[in-house]
Amino acid sequence: MSWPGGLSSLPGPIALTVTLAATLAVTLGCASPARAQEDEPASPIIVTGQGLDSGPAFPAYDVTTIEREALTASASGRIEDVLSSVAGFAQFRRSDSRSANPSAQGVTLRALGGNASSRALVLLDGAPIANPFFGYIPLSAISPDRLASVRVVRGGGMGAFGMGAVSGTIDLTSAGPDEIGTLKGEALINDRGETQVSATSAPRLGEGFVVASVQWDKGDGFWTTPKDQRVNASARAAYETLSGSLRAVAPLSGTIEIQASGLVYDDNRTLRFKGADSTSSGQQGSLRLVGRGDWQFDVLGYVQAQDFSNIVISSSSYKKTLDQAKTPTLAIGGKAEIRPPVGNAHVLRLGTDLRLSQGHLVELPYSTATGLPTAFRRAGGDQSDLGFYAEDDWTLGALVLTAGVRGDRWTIRNGFYRALTASGAVSEDIAYANRSGWNANARGGLVWHASEAISVRAAAYTGMRLPTLNELYRPFVVFPVRTEANAALKPERLRGYEAGIEVHPSDAISLSLTAFDNRLKHAIANVTIATNLRQRQNVDAIHARGLEASADLTFGTVSLNGSLSWTDSKVEASGDQAALDGMRPAQVPRIAASATLAWMPRGGWRLAATLRHVGAQYEDDLQTNLLRAATTLDAYARVPLTGPFALVLRGENLTDETIVTRNQSGSIDLGTPRTLWAGFAISFD
Can you name the residues that pair with 393 across neighbouring β-strands? Predict the structure, then answer.
């Protein structure tokens, strides 16, 4: 395994951010507590490590919050497993981040999928974390143990970085000393000999705190290939992931705090055949100032550097046919939001955000006869988005109204494709035309608190997503199917409506039901154009309508949390794509449901079982290959032992359900089989 290379190898802005986080930690540790008493009486300084509050109109949209207890008690210890309990959440494929190709880890909401790009915006402490080239989410780098909560907002996004939130926003908030304590750690092993080790320390230093965390996962993996399809070249889904984070938070005054964060990770996987290896690595740094005075503000800057490689092995000769050697990508961006004091009845947000990204691929096709490269290819380009937004929440007694507008200036520039023959002669050299434009979006909603027990809400919104550099310029192969890029792709445009009701007769009972209608115009899909050949194309639209329901019940030490999504999602297509009209988008199930029953008596015990069902879905756009429905049962147990120690037991897919994750004309990949974990946890408060 190759670690990203230490601080000296990081891009300058990231190294600066990590250094600043460490410097903040040292400064906090050296500060004298007595200095805070020199100007008595002093107001108490409260450091949260979070952003500004969402505002009173936030419930106008369909929101689900996952608290820390549920985050740290999943059967797999993976963030995608936790998110799968949210109604409407889906990955492009059913595989988790141990056995999927990283580039397939797109996440979306409300059945607006159809390819591997993310149509949901994922933020970590306010900064986007999607790979700038592909749009996939580095799920293996996000340890649930580091998080305080996850908030999922379904529906078109607004506000900072709202351009990519066409299906919703997933907001990850890091934990601090209140949630972590001084030190927490876990070490587990499963019945295949795979291991998972993590440690997080969150000491308070002066009036601030620092959080340092590391996680290492390694295993030979399970067989993704069914037994009757294995050959000598077949391989288990081996994986090894190492990630580390450092975060420091300190007050600058009684109302202003500074937050510095750094994240590094390195991920190695093998899928299906020996030598079919992929790597994903990245570094991300951010610096944030949050002010909670009369003039509230949130100013954030971040930088991302990521890379990806992938080797394609032929499913007939079992030799290397393509080496996607590297895909270096760099993104920088930030936001600035201010909330003027306009009276207790209003929360006014004014802001701007910027994201600049660039990336390119380097790949070498190989001859299976000679084992030598036959060409050398490079492709890539640049993108930018500058956004301006304004939004106001207006409280009128039991009624809260909200409305906002956003304008984006986007560019797609410097796109190119260049190919050389094995002898070095230029065979193709294409420079694509630069494109740019302005785009305006809006959203509005209301929430009416009809009584203490009932709230009614409604919202309408529009949104936009630029095609990723991957969709524009990078072809890919899931052998034997090749999918071509398309440099002429248009941006996707969303129009959506929803209405819902929340019923919470007591603190122990919360019920929610939402009906929605979303239409994604110019949706980008992998369209079949010949046998074993597809191309990314804009279809007329994906039209998704459905229902989402959730229930959270607590009876003493017993809780029941459930979710259900039913969606009628169809492709609207015409002309050369008319054969797709009325079909369900690829990889989109009609129904998904989840229920978790947990028992949490005093003393640190937790016993939980999760039953999850995902309906049938199709592998491809023409609905020729079916992935049948799957129902799984997971379990988790934490049993306190002596002192700070606890026994941890986890079980994935206890009924050993067959989960089909890929079906290409009968060539099948499988998801996680029954897996049993056991280990110990340690916690010092």
Answer: 347, 402
What residue numbers bound the domain in which 282 lies? 7-33+57-684
Q: Which two tokens stand for residue 520?
A: 């994604």
Contacts for 600 with CB less than 8 Å, ≥ 6 apart: 69, 557, 558, 559, 606, 607
Tokens of 275: 């030598």
| Residues counted in the chain | 685
**Residue corresponding to tokens 């919703």:** 168
Residue 45 maps to a domain: no
Domain annotation covers residue 610 = yes
Residue type, 207: E
Helix (H) or strand (E) holding 599, with range, is strand 591-599
Question: Would you give the distance in Å from CA 221 to the centre of its chain?
Answer: 23
Residues 429-447: tens digit of each pLDDT: 999 999 999 999 999 999 9
Strands of 82-175 (E only): list them: 89-91, 107-109, 120-124, 127-128, 147-154, 168-174
The DSSP-derived string for 158-206 is -STTGGG-SSEEEEEEE--HHHH-SEEEEEEEETTS-EEEEEEE--EET
Per-residue pLDDT at 163? 83
Strands (E), 314-434: 320-326, 329-339, 346-365, 375-396, 399-421, 426-431
Cβ-based neighbour number of residue 149 at 10 Å: 17
The model's pLDDT over 177-220, given as tens digits with 9 standing for 90+, comes to: 999 999 999 999 999 999 999 999 999 999 999 999 999 999 99
For residues 304 and 411, what is the distance between their CA atoms, to the nearest angstrom?
19
Q: Is residue 1 part of a domain?
A: no
CA–CA distance, 31 with 63 (Å, rounded to integer): 40
- Residue 646: pLDDT band by 50, 70, 90 thresholds? very high
Three-class DSSP category at 285: strand
Distance CA 681, CA 145 (A): 12
Residue 428 to residue 71: CA distance in whole angstroms: 49
Per-residue pLDDT reduced to its tens digit, 629-640: 999 999 999 999
Q: What is the DSSP string of 506-531?
A: ETTEEEEEEEEEEEEET-EEEEEEET
The one-letter amino acid at 82: V
Q: State both tokens at 214.
A: 């590391």
- Number of domains present in the structure of the chain: 1
Name the residue with tokens 């929605």: 516
Residue for token pair 């797109």: 106
Contact between 24 and 248 (Cβ < 8 Å): yes
Lowest mean pLDDT among 34-48, 73-87, 357-371, 545-559: 34-48
Measure the CA angle with vertex 511, ends 509 and 515; round to 5°.
Answer: 175
CATH of the domain at 556: 2.40.170.20
Distances (CA, A) of 78 to 141, 143, 372, 644: 9, 7, 39, 24
Query: In which element (H, E) is residue 501 found?
Result: strand 492-506
Q: Cβ-count burial of 100 within 10 angstroms (0-12 exposed, 13-18 middle, 19+ buried)?
A: buried
Q: Is residue 38 part of a domain?
A: no
Q: Residue 2 carries which side chain, given as an amino acid letter?
A: S
Residue 393: both structure tokens together = 């929440």
**Phi and psi dihedrals of 164, rounded to 5?**
-90, 0
Strand order across the 120-124 sheet: 62-67, 147-154, 168-174, 120-124, 127-128
How many CB atoms sit inside 10 A of residue 371's CB?
Answer: 9
